[in-house]
Amino acid sequence: MAAPASGLAHAPSFDSLLSGRRIVGLQVFIIVICAIVSMVDGFDTQSIALAAPSIAKDFGVQASSFGPIFGVGLFGGLVGAIVFGMLGDKFGRKPILIASIAIIAIGALITPFTTTATALFLVRFLTGIGLGGALPGVIALTGEYAPLRRRAATVALMFCGFPLGAVVGGLASSVLIPKLGWESVFWVGGIVPVILLPVVTLAVPESVRFLARRSDSSALAKVLDRLNLDPTLAPDIAPTADEARAPLPSLFMRGRAVGTIMLWIILLLSLLMTYFLTNWIPIIATQNGLDTRVAILGAVMLNLGSIIGSLVLGRFVRARPAATIVVGYVVGALAVVAIGQAAHSAPGLLVTCFLAGFFGIGAQLCTVGLCATYYSDALRATGVGSAVGVARLGAILGPVVGGVLIAGGVSTPLIFVIIGAVSFGAAIAMLVMGLAVLRKRGVGSAEITAAQAA
């Protein structure tokens, strides 16, 4: 059995008990389950866009009417993340995660029974609450059970499940929808969380931080025993202090105003672009004469490009953050414009979507990491939280803007010129930040990981 580190005998922290040990089976299990939940999140978030062309045909509605339907799901995600995050602090991460998975399952499984756009609107809001509500739980559990020295990398690895789930969902949808109809995508999206429910309920432990706060020594002892640690240490484990949150006005003091505003603009614009592309590419492709399978594969290539792009650009952004991100957004803007020119060609659509994901969305993921490194420890929670909140507004607006443009009869090439201009606007804001803020502060490196985004 492991003993507490020297000097921590009276009040050992859970991190100190995990320090210097190899990751054991329970830790791997927790990380894998959280990654699968993240994949389900990505799958279900993307599924409505992949099925939208077929749903619109069945419902007898215009495809442009799906803007609010796309947007309300993302708004539900915002509500779920905020409300369920607070409930998790009060009632524990595990029960809230179970409730979120149940909501995802219910939302997905009742979607095939909807017959009107209004019913689908309400169901997507419900599903969005579950999707957003699951994130605080998987972040907390993965972070707490990963060793401190590997925590950032582990959370980053877990978060790869989200875009991977979107890719898997796209590949599955390209086979399922043509053969079994759009309903099949939601059957799959609902059955998987149903299978996850008993696994999470019976095998995933509660947050150690929550148990320590409640002084639940009995439950803590069971967790320690499953981790091959000394269960008699449970009563002495010190609760982890809450991360300090600075007041919002402090983000605009002592020369931080320009950097804060630029980060908000960059993330709002880039998320607007990202969620426009992920939601509308399948519909626009089918409207331009491509079959359903090719339209879905366009979304797959976009997500696949974003995964690879974030990894590749992340290597360059450590040395030259501003320059790398600016180039990413500029090339991404050109690729987005090219989608509009190639929307009638299957090879052209797939190539341009991959490039848009690689550069445009890859740069966006790097920007979130830069946001985490821009603020000091005392300001990081408030700085990142506010920036991600503003970014979510862009995510909600993206699908709605797409619906307005399509309903207004704007041509496909012009639509993508407008969205490309959005990415170019993010590049300009990043250039301003690089010249006016980062250079003066001497910021020359940034450790970009999905963990910082979380």
CATH topology term of the largest domain? Growth Hormone, Chain: A
What is the overall number of helices? 17
Question: How many domain regions?
Answer: 2
Task: Please name the CATH architecture of the largest domain.
Answer: Up-down Bundle
Topology pattern, helix = H, strand = E: HHHHHHHHHHHHHHHHH
* Amount of helix: over 70%
Share of residues in strands: under 5%
* Low-confidence region ranges: 1-9, 443-454
Distance, first to last CA: 33 Å
For the biggest sheet, the summary is: none
Q: What is the 3D form?
A: globular
CATH class of the largest domain: Mainly Alpha
Number of strands: 0
Class per helix and strand makeup: mainly alpha
Radius of gyration: 22 Å
CATH superfamily caption of the largest domain = MFS general substrate transporter like domains
Quote the average pLDDT: 86
What does this protein look like?
This protein has 454 residues and is an all-alpha fold. It folds into 2 domains: 16-204, Up-down Bundle (Growth Hormone, Chain: A), CATH 1.20.1250; 246-454, Growth Hormone, Chain: A, CATH 1.20.1250. The protein contains 17 helices and no strands. Helix 2 crosses helix 11 (257-287), helix 3 (66-91) runs parallel beside helix 5 (117-145) and helix 5 packs antiparallel against helix 6. The protein is globular. It starts with 13 loop residues before the first helix and ends with a helix.
